[in-house]
Amino acid sequence: MRSGRTIADLDKLVPFARIGKPEEVAALVAFLASAEGAFMCGSLVEITGAQAMASC
What we know:
The chain is mainly α. It has one domain (7-54). Helix content is 38%, strand content 0%. It is elongated, with a radius of gyration of 14 Å. The mean pLDDT is 87.
């Protein structure tokens, strides 16, 4: 079911003025799976373009 929203409409909902790119999510996943992210434990990482902060 389509919502009738365009990419431009969705971009307006995000404080960074654009929706995220798949490669940005992939970069986070790669970091968390790498040795550099090995010391992280039980963390919640928001990758929302500050959308989560704007709704607080």
